[in-house]
Amino acid sequence: MSRQGFYIALGTIISTMLMASCSIQKFIPEGELLYTGASLEIESDTLIKNKDELKTVLEEVLRPKPNKKFLGMRPRLYFYYKNQQENPGFLNRLLFKNVGEEPVYLSDVKTFQVEELLRNRLENRGFYYNKAASYIIENEKKKRASAAYTLKISSPYILETYQLDTLVAPIYKDLKEVIADSKFKKGMRYDLNALKMERERIDSKLKQKGYYNFNPNFLLFEVDTNQYKNKRFDLFLTLKKDVPEEAIVPYTVSKVNIYSNYDLQNDSLQKESVRFADKNFVNDNDFFKPKYLDPFITVEEGDLYNPVTSKNTARRLSTIGAYKFVNIQYEEIDSMLTDGTRNLEASIYLSPLNKRAIRAELQAVTKSNNFAGPALGFTFTNRNLFKGGESLNISANIGYEVQIAGGNNAGLSSLELSLKSDLIFPRLISPIKIDSDVFEYTIPKTKIGLGAEFLNRSQLYSLLSGTGQFGYIWTANKYVTHEIYPISINYTELSNTTTAFDDILAENPFLQRSFEQQFISGLTYSFIYNGMVSKKKNKFYINSTVDIAGNSISLLGQTQEDSTRKTFLGAEYAQYAKVDADIRYHFNLGNDQKIATRLFAGYGYAYGNSDVLPFIKQYYSGGPYSVRAFRIRSLGPGTFSGGSTNNGTFFDQTGNIRLEANVEYRFPIFGYVKGAVFADAGNIWLSQENEAVPGGKFTSNFINELGIGAGIGLRVDIQGFVIRFDLAAPFQDPTAPEGERFEFKIDEPVLNFAIGYPF
User: Fold this and answer.
1) Mean of the pLDDT values across residues 669-692?
2) What is the pLDDT of residue 669?
3) Which stretches of 322-463 are DSSP H helices?
4) Structure confidence at residue 560 (pLDDT)
5) Where do the DSSP E strands lie in 103-216?
6) Crossing angle of the two packed helices 307-318 and 192-208, in degrees rounded to 10
7) Rounded to the nearest 10 degrees, what angle do helices 89-99 and 75-83 cross at?
8) Contact between 39 and 118 (Cβ < 8 Å)
9) Which residues of 525-541 are buried (b: 16+ CB within 10 A; e: fewer)?
10) Is 255 helix (H, G, I), strand (E, B) or coil?
11) What is d(CA 450, CA 429) in angstroms, rounded to the nearest whole number?
12) Residues above pLDDT 70, as percent of the chain
């Protein structure tokens, strides 16, 4: 983006904000005052537990809500008023349609209704005989007004005992066990919402004991205060009158049917079933072998009905990757009571995905290092390959990039070809037999991966690499995923090097060594905790990886006569350990606003047969998912500026240490369009001195060697698919002389285009 274009964009944003910040009181009609909100004060003659929490609940009923603010201004209200003019113009009509907001006036405030709601909320939480008062604060000069509410609260009603009335068997025994685990204890304040939650809890627990037809509305709480004079009460749990008989008896699953190839259009056709592991498999054309499907099904004949078991079965079946829909239905069987229970028939309908699928993608790639070009990708998927839920994915990609700017480097090109295949088994393949029942949430998957990649960088080199992996992926619960690859092999071969590239390697022995390590064999393990899927207000995420290579293969290595380093099958192998962690925390501010933070730290240590990490295992910094004020792979190591070589802007700058921190304020603009203001800091370093990379070694002065930048972003977020534009400028450049690094270079912005959020 040009300097002039950046100033125009920045000027437009500033002018819009200034217009919105101008006084809007000239638009307010005569006799009206703009309502700016309300305050709430609580007075009590006794100590109130969790007073701040109670105040937050009470503030929810303060109505109406005032017009929304952004950075202390009300731009939505401004656009609304502009649209009310006689000739508002197309732009104002567009803005009003998307972001305009009708004004809230003092005349819209009904304080007596709010007072009644406040008293009602207090009574629902055990506070009775309260007093509510209010008054209005007016500012005629600024045409503003606010409300103030005061509550005088008396002491609440406190629970003395929680008891169960006598009921018929067998529900009395099961109910007694359920309420024994209740959080209702002596001294608890009366709370209507807590009673509703307790009723839902009891219903859930009873259903897990087989009460298929039970309903929380059948439960009734009765409060008795007659025994006490000091605001205490006894709480009794009973059932309402005329509860159906079938609701108070448990149900047993007497039959389980699995339709492994269910088609709604042909569901009326008679199909043969196979009896396996006490289940009936209706398996058209032997679509899915029962011995492979059975471990995913935890609904068993003879067990009591349990919705948790059904949910677990549905989740496990969904993780296979062969089915589009999983539907579990229960049907009551007309039978006499047997051992105090009734019978259910469970039917599991599995609708498969298309067995084969082909996807093609055509992309126009542009990078912040001035490389641009087309990329074409194909993916072929074959599901349920061996009738055991296996998935085969084969992907092929071809990409061509050319540097469209960059002085002497303009015209440099890069050609990339890749072929990758993954075969995934939805079960554990291991020399040691492990019972699948050990894994309650999901069954681990076994993954075998093979791949080859060819990279040709004009005027530099060609690189051919092959990869192979064997390992396991296991989702331990809703948030935690483990990935472990005990076998991970990578082979690279450098060829077609040019004189210019040979000169670069001659000047940089560390870089030369990183390309000489052709063979990488080791183990990788990743731990992922994804709290972003939780319903909590603030969310946490961590992805940590351990990568260890060369230890086992060193036992088979052979030492060459003219070298102290060992080889395996004629190729020099790498030996190293690498650990990194990506930590994210999102603060939810409400109204679709949040502050997203991220911290990344990584370290790689070469030892034994290596004195430097392989090139493909080193870290880089800069770019749309890193420090956005610097071009991709251009930052660092340390204070290194890229040297004087003409290939400096083309060749990646890497290191074995990486530290980064990011913070971003995200907010809605209108519709699917969202905005962001962000700051990034980070860099890479070397753990050892390298004469070819002066200033690249990590020292205690690393804080002053961080590349720091800030900027603004625009995102189009359509149901999780995000197109992102981030404009950033550096304000600390580690390549500048010490004492001159801190300078906000607003006239040197970097425009980043990417898919998805940066973190």
Assistant:
1) 91
2) 85
3) none
4) 64
5) 131-139, 144-153, 158-164
6) 70
7) 130
8) no
9) ebbbbbbeeeeeeebeb
10) strand
11) 17
12) 89
The answer to whether 362 and 376 have CB atoms below 8 angstroms apart is yes
Task: Find the range with the poorest average confidence among 454-458, 469-473, 718-722.
Answer: 718-722
Per-residue pLDDT for 324 more than 80? Answer: yes
Q: What are phi and psi of 21, to 5 degrees?
A: -85, -15
Q: What does R_g of the chain's alpha carbons equal in angstroms?
A: 33
- Is residue 126 scored above 60 in pLDDT? yes
Calculate ∠ Cα 514-515-521, nearest 5°.
Answer: 75
Q: Is the dihedral of CA 531, 533, 534, 537 positive or negative?
A: positive
Cβ-in-10-Å burial (0-12, 13-18, 19+) of 553 comes to buried
The two structure tokens encoding residue 586? 């999102």
Q: How far apart are CA 454 and CA 491, in angstroms?
A: 12
Contacting residues for 212 by C-beta, under 8 A, at least 6 apart: 250, 251, 305, 330, 332, 342, 344
pLDDT score of 729: 94
The partner residues of 273 in beta bridges, in order of sequence, read 282
CB atoms within 10 A of CB 400: 16
Between vectors from CA 342 to CA 337 and to CA 344, what angle results, nearest 5°? 150
DSSP string, 378-395: EEEEEESTTSSS-EEEEE
Cβ atoms of 633 and 622 within 8 Å: the answer is yes
Predicted local distance difference test score (pLDDT) of residue 646 = 41
State the pLDDT at residue 195.
Answer: 96
Q: Write down the pLDDT at residue 405.
A: 58
The per-residue pLDDT for 322 is: 94
Rounded CA separation 349/327 (Å)? 5
Look up residue 134 and give its two tokens: 């209010």
CA 270/CA 548 separation, integer angstroms? 56
Residue 22 has φ and ψ, to the nearest 5°, of -60, 155
Q: What span, in angstroms and rounded, lies between the C-alpha atoms of 179 and 185?
A: 11
Per-residue confidence (pLDDT) for residue 691, from 0 to 100: 83
Tell me how far apart the alpha carbons of residues 630 and 626 are, in angstroms, rounded to a whole number.
Answer: 9
How does residue 267 score in pLDDT terms, banded at 50, 70 and 90? low
Tell me how far CA of residue 663 lies from CA of 545, 675, 681, 682, in angstroms.
23, 14, 9, 12
Structural contact between residues 528 and 483, judged by C-beta atoms closer than 8 angstroms: yes
Distance in angstroms (rounded) separating the CA atoms of residues 719 and 353:
22
Selection from 126, 192, 202 nearest residue 164 by Cα: 202
> Which of 229-233, 326-330, 375-379 has the highest mean predicted lDDT (pLDDT)?
326-330
pTM beyond cutoff 0.85: no
- 67 touches 100 (CB < 8 A): no
pLDDT at 590: 83
Distance from the Cα of residue 159 to its chain's centroid: 41
Q: CB within 8 A of 18, min separation 6: which ones?
A: none
Q: Name the pLDDT band for 15 (thresholds 50, 70, 90).
A: low
Tokens of 72: 């202390």
Q: To 10 degrees, the CA torsion angle through 83, 88, 93, 98?
A: -40
**60-74, 379-393, 396-410: range with lowest mean pLDDT:** 396-410
Q: What is the spatial distance between Cα 105 and Cα 36, in angstroms, rounded to a whole number?
A: 8
**Eight-class DSSP state of 70:** B
Q: In the chain, what are the helix, strand and coil shares in percent, each to the nearest 5? A: 20, 40, 35
